[in-house]
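User:
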Amino acid sequence: MNMLSLRERWDRINPLSCVQGINLSNGLEIGVGQDEYRSRVPMSTVASIIHKWKKFRTTRTLPRAGRPSKLSDRGKRALVREVTKNPMVTLSELQRTSVERGEPSRRTTISAAIHQSGLYGRVARRKPLLSKRHMAARLEFAKMHLKDSQTMRNKILWSE
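Assistant: Predicted structure:
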C-alpha cells in the first residue's frame, strides 16, 4: 500500500494549499497560464482564483456585503415547502416549526424569507359571479321561453 506524505494528503484535502495565492498572482503578472497549475489543482479552482485576482487584485477572502442570513438555505426551502403545501398557515405556526427544526427565527424574518421566494399573502379580488353579459343572456333566454308549456320545460336538462 502506497503511503502518502503528510503534504500530499493535505493537498488532496485542501487544493488551495498547493496553489498559494501570491505565487499564482505573481504567475499571472509574468504571464504563466493555467496549464502549469492544472496537474495538481482542479481547473475550476485555478479559474476561480484567477478570476478573483483579476477582479480584486488579491486572493484573500474579502468581507461579504451585508449581514449573514439567520435562516439557512435549507430552512428557507422548508418554509417555502410548508407554505405551498398549506397556504393558510400562520407566521406563528411557521415560527414554531422553525424552532422545532433548530433554527429559531422571528416572524418578520420568516415573512421576509417567504416574500423573497415570491410568495405573498394576498386575497383575491371579489367579483360578481355573473357578468352583465351573462345576466342579459339569461334574461333573453327566460323571455324567449316564457310561454313554453310545463311538458316542454321538463324535457330540458337543467344544469342548476
